[in-house]
Amino acid sequence: MTVDELAEAVGRELFQRTCTTAWATAAHEGRRTKATWPDDESDVPHELSDLIDGDAALGFALYRAMPCYAVLMYVGFEPHDEAFWAEVRSLLDDADDRLAVPMAYWLWCGPLEAHAEVADAWRQITAGAGALRLRRLLDISGPVPWELKAPLLEHLSKQTDWHEPVLGALEAAAFDYFGELNQPAARRLLNTLALPPDRTKTLQDRLRESGR
Q1: 176 Cβ contact partners less than 8 Å away, ≥ 6 residues apart
Q2: pLDDT, mean of residues 107-115
Q3: Distance between alpha carbon 172 and the CA centroid of its chain, in Å?
Q4: pLDDT confidence band for 110 (50 / 70 / 90)
Q5: What is the spatial distance between Cα 41 and Cα 22, in angstroms, rounded to a whole number?
Q6: Is 212's pLDDT higher than 60?
Q7: Nearest 5 degrees, angle CA 67-CA 71-CA 74?
Q8: Of 67, 133, 135, 166, which is the most exposed, with the fewest CB atoms less than 10 Å away?
Q9: Domain count, the chain
Q10: CA 67 to CA 98: how far, in whole Å?
Q11: What is the C-alpha separation between 160 and 162, in angstroms, rounded?
């Protein structure tokens, strides 16, 4: 089956409208915002789920036409083999936030929160990561166990250009619902960041409270 055949299955006009809405909202999809779609369009990814079942390549092709978390919900059930992770890395590396942001969100509330998967997922998505991917990964690293993400945070903290993203990762670890934080280590790392006190105060207060 092809993406063209998927469009035919739900009707080309509805499929195109849904793709347009997905592209218009994808860059804002994630932990902090939720996009609202028309009811008929919001059903489309779910209606297509049975047709992409077992075919990760088709699922990713659909995602590139209709970038949204709802598509990734079903693609993510496919075997997480090397081809799967290569596609994930490619999307995280894309300069277009509309392709990268829903993927990052899927990782954040999927493999990175799953204790059975997180070690392999973190290894896969950090492998060969450039600056753009690393910044995106730090933002979603809250639920990653401290012992997995600490080496990267320590390494990046030695470069002043990375102090703000490292602070963001520490804030995610401290404030995400499933955030993973080693309080003494986080405090030591925070104290090495050359950032204004008013910028770090919220996290300092949180660490002080959790250390009581």
Answers
A1: 31, 142, 143
A2: 95
A3: 13
A4: very high
A5: 9
A6: no
A7: 155
A8: 135
A9: 2
A10: 7
A11: 5
159 shares its domain with 105: no
Q: Which domain holds residue 57?
A: 1-109
pLDDT greater than 60 at residue 34:
yes
Q: Average pLDDT, stretch 116-137?
A: 97
Which residue type occupies 29? E
Burial class (CB in 10 A: 0-12, 13-18, 19+), 42: middle
Which token pair is 142? 């809250």
Give CA–CA dist 84/184, Å, rounded: 36
- State the DSSP H helix or E strand holding residue 77, giving kind and residue range, or none if neither: none
* 91 contacts 69 by C-beta, under 8 angstroms: no
Q: Mean pLDDT across the stretch 129-147? A: 98
Q: What is the Rg, in whole angstroms, of the alpha carbon atoms belonging to the chain?
A: 19
Are 64 and 6 a contacting pair, CB within 8 Å? no
Same domain for 88 and 189, yes or no, is: no
Tell me what pLDDT residue 32 has. Answer: 67
Q: Name the least confident of 68-82, 84-98, 179-193.
A: 68-82
